[in-house]
Every structure is written in C-alpha cells, then in structure tokens.
Write a structure and sequence with these properties.
By secondary structure, this protein is an alpha/beta fold. Helix content is 30%, strand content 12%. β2 and β3 (96-98) form a beta hairpin.
Length: 519
C-alpha cells in the first residue's frame, strides 16, 4: 500500500544491502572541493523550456509569518482575529497590507502575492515546523514513508528522501561551466541553521548546496530577527531587564550590535598566487602522466579534469578580497549599504545580489524569528516587520535599477502561516524569562502567503482569496509542489525532465503544476 499522493515509481523497491550502501553515502560528507568536483562530473545537457529567469533568490522566513500581519489582513474581523494592527493601502485598488509594511505597499506593483498556499498533509504534519519545513523545501506534499515530525530531523537508515528544490536546480539548470561558484549558495547562517529538507536526497551529495556562515555570532537567547535588530520572543517586557550590560539584563547584547559579515574561509589562507601557480604546474605534470597512461579516453577524461581544476582555481582567486568576490561588501558604496539596511538581513540581500551577478543559480537567504507564539505584536511591530519592509524594498529597488529584476526570480515565504485566533500558547503559563505568556498566533498550515517578484512573473497581482478569518482558502489553493513547479518552469526546466537515483531508476522532477496566474 502506498500513501495518498505517492506514485510507485517514486518509491523504488531497493534491496536492503543496496539501500544501506546508498544511505551510507550521505554519512561521508562532502567539502567544497568535493562539491565542485562532483558538480563538474554531473553536468549534462538539459531538455528545458525557454527560461525566463537566470537565477532565483529564495527567502525563507523560518518559523512561519502570520498572514494577518503581512499580506492578508482582515480589518473587518473580530478583535481576536483582526489583531492589534491597522492596514495600509497599496498601489493596487482595494488591496491592503499590514500597516507596518509601508515601503512594500508602495512597491506592490512590482511583485505579486499568492495568498492561498497550503499543505495537504495530515494535520499533525502540516502544523509542525519540522514536517512543514521539509514539505516546503522539497516541494512535496507528504513526508517520506515511515517518517514523523520527530524523525524527519535526523538521518534514518532506509529513508527515500525527495531532493530539495535547490538540488533539483543544480541538477536540471546548472550554472555555466565558467562560473567559479557552486550552483546553490545558502546565507547568512548557512550551516548554523539546519532544518529538514535541506539535503539533496535521492540526487546524492554531488547536488548539495554550499552553506556559508557570514554573520557574527548572535547572543540573543533563542535569537530571532535581524541583528542588530534582533531579539528573543522570551525577552521580558520589564524595561529593567532589557538586553544590555546592566545587572538585571536578560542577556548581554553589547558584543553583537555591529554584525559585520566576514569573508568565507575556503581553506586557502596563506596561499599566494605564485604558490597557486606552482601547484597548477604540478597538477599539469601529474595530468600528463595520467594522460599517457590512459590514451583511450584521453579527450573525455582530460576535459573533465581541466574543467574541475579551472573551476577550483577560479573559486580560490575569486574568493580573495576585491571586486571579484561577491562576499566582499567593502566594494559597495555607503549609499547602497544604507539602501539595503545596516543589519543582518539587509547585508544578506546585498550578498545575494552580488552572487546572482557572479552567476550563481540559486541563493537562499534564511530569515529567523517568525514563530510568533508570544509577544507577537511587540516583536512584529518593533523588530520583524520594519526589518523586512526596509531590506526587501531596498533589494527590489537595487535589482530594478541594475536591470536584474527581470532575470532574477525572488520568492519569499515561510513553512506555514499562523492561526486566525489570537491566544496565549499556554493560558496562565510563564515563558523562559518568568513572565506570563502574552498572546500570539500559533502553527497553521491550512493557508499561508507567498511573495513573488521578477524573473518572468506578472507583477501587481493578488492571487487567491481566504475566508473572513484568514484561516482557509476560498479559491484555488496551491501546494509546495506547485511552488516548486513554478520555480522550475521560470528557470526553463520543462515538465518532462527526469533524474535518476543511484540505481538508475528514473523520477520526474515535477510533482505539481506551475501557478498559471503568476505567469
């Protein structure tokens, strides 16, 4: 018996010995050099539709933002549904956003919102972070057979896991061979922030992403938001206990107020250009010996070897400080830095723009802190909404001014939405700092919004409607499978594309349909 929505060819009958062998591959791990080598070996001619976008920036709002306090407010609903905020008129007739998104409201003709994303998995899966995060990042509607919300967070022998969207892109729409960077880069806390659905699954480690930690350590307890505008939902409301060096402070934030990004360490510290040149000459000599020993396949093997070596050299040279290094924000003017915002999220968006310009196919930007169970209206108004309003608006402005918006798809959403009704997570209970829980909204996978801009989408559209409480779709709803199919379509990956697992078994890449009203 197969679970609803699954196809037999998506769950191949692999013997126990083969399954353990395949599963063991992921335990070996891959470094950056391995990733470059494997990407080079894996390149193939892609059968595709005409691409509208050259690259994608996927913005992940970890925790799940509230639809009510962003792009689908319900000002006519009762207070316990409506919430504490008002609304603001956008450039679109009759469309209103949360009042604390004024800059994005003024730019609403540049992007579109799908208000009716939803999960179709069982309630115990669609309303929990681990499961919903896996579903979103893999573009699927069901967990792997045998997994639960608890088990999906850790490796499990025998799991047949669907690849994440980025790995699919690395496979089906790889970067140009002359680009010195991996196909998929995740910032600004690419390794410190782990979550289900991040791995390449059935595609194997050659299509894994490169996670880069750029941001300085944040000392906030259960940190959320954008440093230095960061916080913890457990932060006391008592001003005497506000973050700082004081004796009664809940936590000390004096060492993380200026989150200057550092350059990624590629393991090449102390290696000079002459040394790299000498190493290249040594490789050439070794290459000559190898060619002499294998003349029957000299052309194919030497071409792959040269491409791998050249890409590694380009990466090492491009990663040095200077104009060619997309991580070196010292190359940007103060005006541009201010446009994006002098905080973690803004700097991450700026690095994303520079990575796109460098030819990277997909950049994922992780934004933490959207799990607003408590102190929701304090933290959304004071931290989360002002940060995203400024940073994302600056990002759109800069992409547009540089002529990059039309060829760069920007997608932003969380793994779920929030409950229509506001309530404390535990009535009368106390949070970690010892204060009574204040009201917020809780996990809700039945409906959530998704933001789209650039890269071939039709701007200025609000797609889908929800009920008067913002809890359920009342028009056509879309799944993570449809989201993934939309991304693939815009990048030129056709619906007939397949990939193969380690045993050669074929799988279709599309599991949903592109959202046509966006196209």
């Amino acid at each position: 018996m197969h679970r609803t929505g699954c196809e037999r060819h998506e769950h191949p009958a692999i013997g126990r010995r083969e399954l353990l062998q395949v599963g063991g591959l992921g335990l070996l791990g891959t470094g950056l050099s391995d990733l470059l080598r494997l990407e080079s070996q894996a390149a193939e001619v892609a059968r595709s539709t005409a691409p509208r976008a050259k690259s994608i920036v996927l913005i992940f709002q970890s925790g799940g933002p509230s639809q009510h306090e962003t792009f689908d407010p319900k000002p006519e609903a009762p207070a316990e549904i409506r919430g504490e905020y008002g609304t603001t008129q956008t450039r679109l007739s009759g469309v209103r956003f949360c009042e604390y998104l004024p800059k994005l409201s003024l730019r609403s003709d540049r992007f579109s919102i799908v208000r009716t994303m939803h999960h179709t998995a069982d309630r115990q899966f669609r309303n929990e972070h681990n499961s919903a995060t896996y579903l979103l990042h893999t573009g699927t509607t069901e967990l792997p057979d045998g997994d639960t919300n608890a088990s999906i967070t850790a490796p499990r022998p025998g799991r047949i896991s669907w690849p994440n969207i980025g790995s699919m892109i690395a496979y089906a729409a790889p970067t140009d061979p002359h680009v010195g960077w991996p196909a998929v880069v995740e910032i600004p806390r690419g390794n410190l922030m782990t979550y289900p659905g991040r791995e390449p699954g059935l595609l194997g480690p050659r299509y894994g992403r490169w996670g880069v930690d750029l941001a300085a350590p944040c000392n906030a307890k259960d940190a959320g938001g954008s440093c230095p505008n960061c916080y913890s939902h457990d932060d006391p409301n008592d001003p005497a206990r506000a973050p700082g060096p004081g004796p009664n402070a809940w936590w000390n934030n004096t060492s993380c107020r200026k989150p200057i990004f550092h350059l990624p360490n590629l393991g090449s510290d102390g290696v000079s250009i002459p040394q790299l040149t000498n190493r290249t000459e040594l490789l050439r000599q070794l290459d000559g010996l190898r060619r002499a020993a294998d003349t029957s396949q000299v052309h194919a093997v030497s071409t792959a070897w040269d491409a791998q070596r050249d890409q590694a050299m380009r990466l090492l040279l491009a990663a040095r400080p200077g104009k060619q290094n997309p991580f070196d924000l010292d190359q940007e003017s103060d005006a541009t830095r201010d446009l994006y915002g002098r905080e973690e999220w803004g700097q991450a968006f700026l690095v994303a723009r520079r990575l796109v310009e460098s030819g990277v196919r997909m950049v994922q930007v992780n934004l933490r802190g959207w799990d607003t169970h408590q102190n929701a209206f304090r933290d959304l108004k004071g931290k989360l909404l002002p940060s995203i309003d400024h940073c994302l608006s600056g990002f759109l402005d800069d992409l547009s001014a540089r002529g990059l918006l039309d060829e760069t798809l920007v997608v932003m959403c969380g793994e779920m939405g929030r409950t229509p009704k506001i309530s404390p997570i535990t009535v009368g209970g106390k949070n970690v700092s010892g204060e009574i829980f204040t009201p917020g909204r809780h996990h809700w996978g039945d409906v959530f919004p998704c933001f789209f801009a650039g890269g071939g989408i039709q701007p200025g559209r609000i797609i889908g409607t929800t009920d008067s409480h913002g809890g359920l779709p009342t028009s056509e709803a879309y799944t993570p499978s449809d989201l993934a199919a939309t991304i693939f379509h815009l990048l030129g990956v056709g619906p007939d594309r397949e990939f193969h697992d380690a045993t050669g078994r074929p799988y279709v890449i599309y599991r949903g349909q592109p959202i046509r009203d966006l196209l």
